[in-house]
Amino acid sequence: MALSNSDVYRLTGETLRRECEVRGLDHNDPVRALRQRLTDHIRGAQMDNTAKTEVTQASDSNDLVINTDITDPSGVPSASRGSGADAQIPVLVELLRPIPHLTSEEPEAIMRLFIKLDEVHGLGLVEDRVFITRILQLVSGSLLTFLGNCLHVGNTWSECRVQLLSEYFPHFVRERMIRDLVVFNLQGQGQNLRAFINQVFSTAKFLQYEVSDQELVARVVMNFHPDILAHAAFIDRPRTIKERYQAV
Predict the structure, then answer these.
(1) How many Cβ atoms are within 10 Å of 10's Cβ, its own excluded?
(2) pLDDT mean over 46-75
(3) Over the stretch 173-182, which tens digit does the pLDDT of each residue have?
(4) Residue extents of the structural domains in the chain
């Protein structure tokens, strides 16, 4: 029986338990919990279908065949395994939901997207192949093909990130972005101080700006708005990330 999310809320308790049982879901909880579980399951299936459709379209246009079914070394699809990681997929879906679809392949736009994705990936909710599959819906064009290739050859997220820098951020582009977004990135009047600091540090990390924390902290302090610097003159100069937050 094909169900939509709205259909779930019209089911009786008995029908709801039967639908959960058919899909291999736990069907012994209260009705409210079963509705949420079935809704999450349907939403996850819809996202899988969307991701597979986009990858297939990219494959047709680039002679690339990608199988996005996630398998373990034994060859068993993860969707058929009752692993604990499966329970984290709805959480991952909700964290990815607010992230907008990438509409430009400008380096700055790609960087902003992947910085946000790095934050979600850092939570360690799912394995890398599942994570990469889930983010296919956020990209299109050459980036969709790029991520599809990462899946095809079995790259980890870290390996995928290294290749992304190599292909989309050649040396002269990274130098320009480091200069504009890290070294000479002046805090704007009224710009949130913590947001400004985090922006500089996340950009430096993504672009692999190889300086010590102390040097980067010093550069950030130098670029504070004059109004902030007037107050900073009365505190000890921070040398580490921890001291920087204490100063803020």
Answers:
(1) 10
(2) 50
(3) 999 999 999 9
(4) 5-169, 172-247
Tokens 């950009």 belong to 203
Q: Which amino acid is at 173?
A: V
Rounded to two decimals, the pTM is 0.61
Please answer whether residues 216 and 203 qualify as being in contact, where contact means their C-beta atoms are separated by less than 8 angstroms.
Answer: no
Averaged pLDDT score across all residues of the chain:
80
Q: Does position 213 have pLDDT exceeding 80, yes or no?
A: yes
Residues 6+ apart with CB under 8 A from 204: 178, 182, 211, 216
Q: How far apart are CA 213 and CA 230, in angstroms?
A: 23
> Does position 193 have pLDDT exceeding 70, yes or no?
yes
- The token pair that represents 47 in the structure block: 């996202």
For 192-221, b/e burial (b = at least 16 CB within 10 A) is eeeebbebbbbbbebbebeeebeebbebbb
pLDDT above 90: residue 164: yes
CATH ID of 172-247, from 1.10.1200, 3.30.70, 3.30.1380, 1.25.40: 1.10.1200
